[in-house]
Amino acid sequence: MVSQDKKSNGSTDKGVRDRLFDSAEELFCEQGFEGTSVRDIAASAKCNIASLNYYFGGKEKLYHKIWRRHLITMRDARIAGINKVMSQNSGKPKLEDLLRSFAEAFIGPLVDENEARRLNKLMAREWIDNHLPVNMFLEDIMIPTLNAMRSALVRICPGLDESKIPFVVISIVGQLLHVLHVKAIFQQIDNTALPKFDLAQAIDHVVKFSTAGIKVYIEEKSE
Predict the structure, then answer these.
(1) Burial letters for 168-195: b for 16+ Cβ neighbours within 10 Å, e otherwise?
(2) CA dihedral defined by 91, 207, 102, 124, rounded to 10 degrees?
(3) Is 88 left (phi over 0), alpha (psi -120 to 50) or beta?
(4) CA 107 to centroid of chain Cα atoms
(5) What is the dihedral of CA 93, 97, 99, 104, to 10 degrees?
(6) What are the residues whose beta carbons fall under 8 Å from the beta carbon of 173, sequence distance 6 or more?
(7) Tens-digit pLDDT profile for residues 93-111
(8) CATH topology of domain 11-57
(9) Exposure string (b/e) for 95-118, b if CB count within 10 Å is 16 or more?
(10) Of 131, 120, 36, 29, nearest to 74 (Cα)?
(11) pLDDT of 114-166, one tens digit each?
(12) For the chain, how far is it from start to end, CA to CA, in angstroms?
């Protein structure tokens, strides 16, 4: 009976936590951090206010946990894509394959209909009214991803100056973010004069363009 009670309580706790988490994320998306009160979250989750403080330690910590879930999901997808490529072709992958895998892993969570809707809204709210620790993006996603890409690029391109690698990664990320921005603009405009925007073609262009640029860096070093 004791073990069954523990199992039951654990299931109940998870249900309460999940409701609070999901309700808070939706409210933060729609109303922003400042516009969402603890009372709003508790009411939406059909819980009492004490539950939020008990499970998450307050609204701010819950907001951070919501963001970390998104960041960790994106980080893990990108690093998994890098590791997968590095294990292929007898451990001798092509540069273009690495960049393509990275680009697809980067774009994926940002175009997934449900995931992207919430994440984009959270980003917009956070951009206007910042409530995240300055180092969160740096520690949770940027440094781990950059380290994984650095190791992969050094192995695939031994002639590449390592000091150039951060700029290479930043350049690729910047291109991909711009692709997503342009895609969103094209979707809002109904104009037959505009060319059809094909996301797969855009990613292919970024990959080939970046591959060529990296090869130029290598050639410059060898001269």
Answers:
(1) bbebbbebbeebbeebeeeeeeeeeeee
(2) 170
(3) beta
(4) 8
(5) -130
(6) 106
(7) 899 999 999 999 998 877 7
(8) Arc Repressor Mutant, subunit A (1.10.10)
(9) bbbbbbbbbbbbbbebeeeeebeb
(10) 120
(11) 667 788 889 888 888 889 988 998 999 999 999 999 999 999 999 999 999 99
(12) 76
Q: Which of 105, 112, 118 is nearest to 203 (CA)?
A: 105
143 alpha-carbon distance from chain centroid:
13
Hey, what are 162's tokens? 């390592």
CB 38 within 8 A of CB 49: yes
Whether the CB-CB separation of 133 and 64 falls below 8 Å is answered with: yes
Closest by CA to 63, choosing from 130, 156, 146, is 130
**Cβ pair 30, 69 in contact under 8 A:** no
Residue matched to tokens 């969570």: 109
The domain defined by 64-222 folds into Tetracycline Repressor; domain 2 (1.10.357)
The residues of the chain that CATH labels 1.10.357.10 are 64-222
Residue type at position 37: S
Q: Where in the chain is the domain with CATH 1.10.10.60?
A: 11-57
This prediction's pTM: 0.80
Judge whether 201 and 140 are in contact, CB under 8 Å. Answer: no
